[in-house]
Design goal:
The protein is α+β, with helices and mostly antiparallel strands and about 950 residues long. The chain contains 23 helices and 39 strands. The strands form 6 sheets. Strands 29, 30, 31, 32, 33, 34, 35, 36 and 37 form a 9-stranded mixed β-sheet that branches. Strands 3, 4, 6, 11, 12, 13, 15 and 16 form an 8-stranded antiparallel β-sheet that branches. It has an 8-stranded antiparallel β-sheet with strand order 10-9-8-7-14-5-18-17, with no helix packed on it. Strand 22 and strand 23 form a beta hairpin.
Length: about 950
């Protein structure tokens, strides 16, 4: 390991690199020099960090074979093939002022409305690109690479458009052409200050075609501020047009309200006249309202700074969504007949003629200026409300304003700023994955440009500002951006990219976790989990030990102290106090994103330290929460993935959460297309192959010239078979022995038993020179066991091997279940359950069917139950004696069965006798009842 790099040395190197940037951006908006990259993206992906003693295989090195994972993936591939990517691109194109081709934005978190308030647009596109990239790697299907290239091309066009001033988007108008303002574009028409000409009488006339029913979007607004202005809104709070003029703010408005709403997606004509103290509002040639006490005119407003079509002087009002045709201003009040004539012909062809103060026909089909035909030469300019990007690398589906606001924000408010760097991460990761999948240099250029922009922005900020930003709930969330930047740095080698990654250091979090001080209580779970995967990558790049220590210790604060039986964590998105499990059971537990990110962290920790507990957790969360978060049906429009998984009794999983396009649906798309990413790892020196998961698959280990084919129906089968193919090669086959494999783990090679004693929670090594056709058979019988909530041992969950079993029951109170009734000598509780014929891994107990959590069904379920063993029963023989308990809740049966496994019945009876004697001696059980318990144990028949 190289000596750690200080933050100062990184920034000095970055400053030198920034002085000679790898990219230049001429007026054309195209990069003149591509980022230096290896010959292929695959070569970059293969360059695992030197700190990794174990390395992953590429997704295309591991093929899923028919089975549980392939079936689940197929459901998501149907979505990847079927969803219209132009809908995802709509929000990017709209933000850049480009034509959207009539595509409808996805809505939900990708929309301008609802919970996200428009503040997360673009995140889902990044997830979708990653899904497509993984789908292509896993299947090789051309449809996925075609879709990736379509999206990368569109995003390249978007960035080019953002680098320039906005240009006219010409569409068919009422008479000729019109200018369209796509919702989400933040564009408006800026008119010269002389447009109203100080008129004491006036007519303003416009054709508009609104496309959204949002209130207070302006057709026009002339003013200086929120005090002195004159506007016409397509909809007021009551949904009808409103004209108003004031010199003393909203309270002094002299207004006129329409009577009916303007229809959407249809042309409507609006006109306002003011003269002689009377104002009249016309809609489609009809005078719909008058104000005969309108003393104010444009002359009273004086010269105004802001003269806008489509934009309000109130910042919180939306930009007008729709199209404009013919806007005219006359220095007199047109007659009703003149306004009626404007309904059927252009102003130039009417008796009124063109507006003498201003006249815009919107005949332009390109450029960013609009000609005035009044004779006054008042050329208008198309502008963005936010100006434009601070750097040519900027790429987003909304303006740069959230990033700017965050820099001065001291409190969180996700209605105004919702995790802009989180969204930037999703986009960055998406285009980076697209590059790795396709070698498309445009995707790498987008990724590198984004990091150049972020570095230019963040490197100027004081350290205290950065610490404040990243410590803000939600607003300061940045997801896994550090990991993505570090990954990009391995490709570009640009010093400022590594320096950028360190700008996301959250020192309070790092230092406390490095010192193993648990500060997680009250923190937003998914805001913090992915941070540590990024910090591990910073450790790889810099050698700074605190990153590794912090990540390792953080993992241990979550597992098992804040982990549910399915592998999930968090309640209502947050963590509570350490070791509080029962106390956090709710209908908003186990946010799906948390499991996704804990898997990434676990595997990355394993690359550094081959502790089996990381892959034990990986198996638990993958086979339970992650698989179970995907509904078992396909849908082209929705990924059908949970957000929360409620653990309350009778909870029904919601596979269409919130309003859609959520973070969890995004990570769910990714999870379902990379199930094979951790089945096999290899030692960095090539001496070992780690088999971490038992899943039907085929590994192609090109370096060794071998294939490994795994044939199994695990977990429906309690074992697997590995078959070696290809040329001979020497290596150690390291087989994970799950911590739950207490009933044995037996290995044969070509039919002969392998010597040694596999230990649960370890790896069992088989070393030899392997030849084509060699067959390794692994048998690992499952046992049924319970796992107890740390804070309430009577609240338990059922685990059968790696699988969490949930009761399907509509009751909304915890099921009361006993499991000792027919427990086997081994301690296996399974004999107390009855298998369901024809349904593997399904059982019944107490009239309730138990099924694997991984089945993505909409049944009401019980993940936890209340343990109840009211009487002492052995081998289905009831002693008739109440099962006594100690003050801590431990019962007589608990203490007896804690001695399992028992080699013989006599060993169990001996345990019963010694335990009874102790309880009698402690006054917890009478002598007579104790004798009855012993006699019952002696007379019972037991399962193995």
């Amino acid at each position: 390991m190289a000596p750690p790099l200080s933050r100062r040395s990184l920034f000095q190197a970055a400053a030198l690199a920034a002085a000679t940037p790898a990219l230049s951006y001429p007026a054309t908006g195209r990069a003149t020099a591509a980022v230096e990259a290896p010959q292929t993206a695959a070569a970059a992906a293969a360059a695992a960090p030197g700190a990794w003693s174990v390395q992953p295989f590429a997704l295309d090195d591991v093929a899923l074979r028919p089975g549980l994972f392939a079936d689940k993936r197929q459901l998501m591939l149907d979505h990847a093939r079927g969803y219209d990517v132009n809908r995802l691109l709509q929000v990017f194109r709209a933000n850049a002022g480009l034509a959207t081709g009539g595509a409808v934005a996805p809505g939900g978190w990708e929309g301008l409305d609802g919970e996200a308030n428009g503040n997360l647009r673009g995140h889902y596109t990044g997830h979708f690109l990653t899904m497509l990239s993984q789908a292509y790697a896993g299947t090789g299907e051309q449809v996925f690479i075609d879709r990736i290239r379509t999206m990368v091309g569109a995003l390249t066009d978007v960035r080019a458009a953002l680098r320039k001033a906005p240009a006219v988007l010409s569409v068919a108008g009422k008479f000729g052409t019109a200018v369209e303002n796509v919702r989400g574009s933040y564009q408006y028409v800026d008119l010269p200050a002389a447009v109203l000409g100080g008129a004491s009488a006036v007519t303003l006339s416009a054709w508009v075609k609104p496309t959204h029913d949002g209130n207070w979007a302006r057709v026009f607004d002339f003013g200086n501020n929120n005090t002195r202005y004159m506007y016409l809104a397509g909809r007021n709070a009551g949904g009808v047009p409103r004209f108003a003029i004031t010199t003393s703010g909203p309270g002094g408005e002299q207004g006129i309200n329409g009577t009916t709403a303007l229809p959407l997606n249809q042309w409507s004509h609006l006109a306002v006249t003011i003269a002689g103290g009377t104002g009249t509002l016309y809609v489609n040639g009809t005078a719909v309202a008058r104000n005969t006490a309108m003393s104010l005119t444009p002359a009273a407003l004086g010269t105004l700074a802001n003269n806008w079509l489509g934009r309000s002087n109130f910042d919180t009002d939306p930009v007008f969504p729709g199209a404009f045709d013919e806007f005219n201003v006359w220095s007199r009040a047109l007659t009703a007949a003149e306004i009626t004539e404007l309904q059927s012909r252009r102003a130039a062809d009417s008796a009124a003629g063109r507006g003498n103060l201003a006249s815009y026909a919107f005949d332009e089909t390109s450029g960013g200026t609009l000609a005035d035909a009044s004779g006054r030469g008042l050329t208008a300019t198309l502008r963005r409300t936010w100006g434009g990007p601070s750097h040519p690398g900027f790429l987003a589906a909304y303006p740069e304003t959230q990033f700017i606001d965050l820099e001065s924000r001291t409190t969180s408010d996700y209605t105004k700023v919702w995790a802009p760097y989180y969204t930037a991460h999703k986009i960055l990761k998406g285009v980076l994955d697209a590059y790795l999948a396709t070698d498309d240099a445009r995707a790498l250029d987008l990724a590198s440009g984004m990091c150049d922009w972020m570095y230019a922005r963040l490197s100027k900020l004081p350290e205290a500002t950065l610490q404040r930003m990243w410590g803000l709930f939600s607003s300061g969330e940045f997801g896994g951006i550090v990991e993505a930047i570090c990954e990009l740095h391995t490709i570009t080698g640009k010093a400022e990219h590594l320096a950028l990654a360190k700008l996301f250091d959250l020192d309070r979090l790092i230092d406390n976790c490095a010192a193993n001080t648990d500060i997680l209580d009250g923190l937003h779970a998914n805001q913090h989990i992915p941070i540590f995967t990024g910090y591990l990558r910073l450790y790889d790049a810099t050698g700074e030990q605190r990153y590794l220590d912090a990540a390792r210790n953080f993992w241990g604060m979550v597992v098992p102290h804040r982990m549910y039986g399915i592998g999930g964590t968090s309640t209502g998105e947050f963590w509570k106090a350490r070791d509080v499990i029962a106390g956090t059971i709710s209908d908003t537990d186990a946010e799906t994103c948390c499991a996704y990110n804990m898997l990434k962290l676990s595997r990355t920790l394993f690359f550094h330290e081959q502790q089996p507990k990381y892959m034990d957790y990986y198996e638990r969360a993958l086979y339970n929460q992650v698989l179970g978060s995907k509904q078992d049906k396909s849908d082209a429009e929705k990924p059908l993935v949970t957000y929360f998984i409620g653990l309350t009794p009778g909870h029904v999983r919601d596979f269409t959460p919130k309003q859609g396009t959520t973070c969890c649906e995004g990570t769910g798309m990714e999870s379902a297309t990379k199930y094979q990413d951790s089945v096999y790892f290899k030692a960095a020196d090539g001496t070992s192959l780690y088999v971490n998961l038992y899943s039907p698959s085929q590994l192609t280990w090109a370096d060794k010239g071998v294939t490994v084919t795994q044939t199994t129906s695990f977990p429906r089968e309690q074992g697997t078979t590995l078959t070696i193919g290809g040329a001979g090669a020497a290596f150690a086959l390291r087989l994970r022995v799950p911590s739950w494999a207490t009933a044995g783990f037996r290995v044969t090679v070509n039919g002969s038993a392998v010597s040694g004693t596999p230990t649960p929670g370890s790896y069992f090594s088989v070393s030899r020179t392997w030849r084509s056709g060699d067959t390794v058979r692994i048998s690992m019988p499952f046992r049924l066991r319970v796992e107890k909530a740390i804070d309430d041992p009577s609240l338990q969950t059922l685990q059968y091997g790696p699988i969490n079993l949930v009761g399907r029951n509509s009751s909304t109170t915890h099921l009361q279940l006993g499991l000792y009734r027919n427990a086997g000598l081994s301690g296996d509780l399974l004999p107390s359950l009855t298998p369901v014929s024809g349904k593997p891994l399904h059982f019944t107990l107490g009239g309730t069917e138990f099924a694997p959590f991984f089945e993505g069904a909409e049944n009401p379920t019980h993940a936890y139950f209340r343990r109840s063993e009211p009487r002492v029963v052995f081998g289905n023989t009831d002693s008739g004696i109440a099962n006594p308990a100690k003050s801590d809740g431990t019962t007589l049966l608990d203490e007896i069965w804690a001695g399992a496994p028992f080699g013989t019945k006599n060993a169990l009876v001996a345990r019963v006798r010694s335990t009874v004697n102790a309880w009698v001696g402690a006054g917890l059980l009478s002598q007579a009842d104790g004798q009855t318990v012993v006699r019952t144990a002696e007379g019972a028949t037991y399962a193995p």
